[in-house]
Amino acid sequence: MPMPPHAPETALVTGGGGFLGSAVARRLAARGDRVISFSRAEHPRLARLGVAHIRGDIADGDALARACRGVDVVHHTAAKPPPWGPPDEYRRTNVTGTANVIAACRRCGVQRLIHTSTPSVLFDGRDLEGVDESAPYPARWHSPYAETKALAEQQVLRAAAGGLPAVVLRPHEIWGPHDPHFVPRILARAHRLRRIGDGKNLVDTTYIDNAAAAHLLAADRLRQAPGLSGRVYFISQGEPIPAWDMIDAILRAAGRGPVKGRISHRSAWLIGWACELIYSGLRLSGDPPLTRFVADALARAHWFDISAARRDLGYAPAVSTAEGLRRLAAWLKPNGKDPT
Known about the structure:
7-stranded parallel β-sheet; 12 helices; two-stranded parallel ribbon; globular; alpha/beta; Rossmann fold
């Protein structure tokens, strides 16, 4: 069904200064919406595009309520990312923060909520191959990130059942220019990376522009078809590839060689477990060299059926993986911004 002409509206983006949040904010501003970014720091790059900024903490419910006044739609992208951190910090941002977003939407009469989740809510260290949105949550999670994002997602779904129009998106492994997480982590560890497992595990990824486009599509479709409220959608490139082929492709984009050497999944998992014990016991700052969650993610298959997003949202990955890698390479060139 074709979308009707877009009528400009007011959109709030939580985490608007983040990788995904800023991409969503830029797209909204480019099409003429009034955009407000809610984050802990100001971002001049967005201000130059006409994006207003409200400085605040996602755990501050009153600040969020003030930000939501007069807002038509909220894109909730703010979250504490993987792979490592104190469980209380994950709960504060991902669980309490989401509860505050829901409360603010209800209090201020926000018409729609688009919540950014993750396929990690289904991941317990086992392969996920072509699963769709009917797949159940696991009995337990192996990381505070996955657990708290699952709890946040469940809060949104309960709110939708209670009358708040909301859609949940699960974009997987977002990457591209200006990526502060996935790509820099690979490049920073390039000299000591080893292939984990047999290297045949297929994974999904999502180029940043495609992830941002999915958020606008979800908001627009929800306005057109309120019956979509309470739905969950996987978002990706729709072309799963071997995990280590993707890592090698990112390294090539940065002008570096492929990963050499190999380690078994079990050995990597045990090393990750030991690193977690050391970092937790000594309260070390930064991320451990390896965690159990990362070892599992690099050795297991995790790719998803995106046919529901194609059907209901009209989602189609406009930027192919090959084109995305070309854009990433241009950004990482000497005149660009190699994050390492």
